[in-house]
Write a structure and sequence with these properties.
About 50% of the residues lie in helices and about 10% in strands. The protein is an alpha/beta fold and about 525 residues long.
Amino acid sequence: MTALTFAAVSDSAVVSHRLRLEILGALRVWLDGTEVDAGARQQRCLLAMFLAHEGRPLGVAELIGMLWGDDPPASAVNVIHKYVGALRRLLEPGLETRAAGSYLRRHGSAYLFSAGSAELDLSTFRATVAAAREDVAAGRDRAGLDRYAQALRLWHGTAADTLADSAAATATFAKIDSEFFDAVIAATALAVPAHQGARMLAPLRLAASVGRFHEPVHAALVTALAAAGQQAAALSAYRVIRERLTGELGIDPGPELQAAHRRVLTQTTVPADFPPPAQLPHDQPMFTGRATELAVLAEIAGTRDAADHTGPLIVALDGVAGVGKSTLAVHFAHRVAGDFADGQLALDLRGNRSDGDGLTAGEALATLLYGLGVPTHDLPESYDARLGAYRSRTAGKQILLLLDNVRDAGQVRPLFPASPGSMVLVTSRRSLIGLAAHDGAHLLRVDPPDAASARELLRRRLAAAPNRVAEIDAAATGALDSILASCGRLPLTLAILAARLSGDPRLSLAAVAAELAVRPADPAAARSSSRPHIGQ
């Protein structure tokens, strides 16, 4: 939850608080990440009025009409003033009595509430929608869709749910709801042609529950369901709104809703695309350390949206066998996978095999095309045709591609997606300087972890065996350092060592240290063996 920090002034001290206000659904107030009670119902309604009119002065007479309509009590003015004081202290705890504070100030004879987008979800929503419209106007439909999706996630129900006690308040909140409807309809119009109709189903269902009779919203829901391949659900959604309109209002569905229904019946909606691939190997549950490398990778990934990018962002990790390149790449890939709307592809190119029998570029292209939804019987025969099909399938997409065990730049270069919105993570035992020189790749050397990280890796691997952890903690520094040094602090070798210690309770650290001193661990041999053990 992002929020702005303000200083609340009291007689004794200045206390900083982070404030977050929500009106896109039930009214909620958060201070320092904790929800606080916004007071009695009328006080809550007054606060909702200020939030709904953020940045616009509201006179006392106008506020009275919003709270009580045409039948206010004689004490209405005094009640307004009392609630304003209570709200000021609610938003800024410790505020001196009668102090105006930072948010709710006098503006002539009226009150003016001011808050930024970091504090008020309605302001965040409006700013994000405005940015989405700018993206679409500039031809950046994908970016616009992403921004719309971000804005729609802020909604949780009817604006200021249940707090409308007058016609004026009802109209105010209904106007805010209409902004939600407009945004979700515009987003659906972008999502369906891009084969992302399913992405809009959650906000559309929410909008349909808020706008029970809003035909354009229900038409968009019917269209998105059909585009997502849910034809039966689309027909059911149409039937529900039709029965509601005829049964409760006595009217037939309008032209827009009927047109959406006909498109479902004739299957003229954009068909559902092949599901986005999700091919990343599972993350290592006992991953530890690598804070520096992860920070570097995150910094590089942050440049993906740079305007000067004409191709995918490429990062090539290199290091000796067993140093943990693949584990690091997979762990980072899981961290950023959600940033790639069109999915993740992963492929082991087997370029580390001693027989040199890794995948050819043509074989790799066939596998990647299959992952992108091309049936086996439709795979092009020739290399050039596969390359062309792959470029077409990846053009303009946001794909995360993990290419493991790469032999050289020539093996991997044809596999890069044809999109500046994509990212490629490459692992290799060699430094792929050619990718940096000709493809703008970022090179990251992965070295063995330091002694402290290596010790922590052992502890985490042996966490299920408390006696082993205690043995590590009690071991003489020299003896344990000797073991770590004999293993080269290589994560693969340490993992094998931990497995051996877990499986043989009679084996002591001293015995392992002695064995390794005579016969150091060989991670390459350990990797190739069907029954690896330290010293093999």
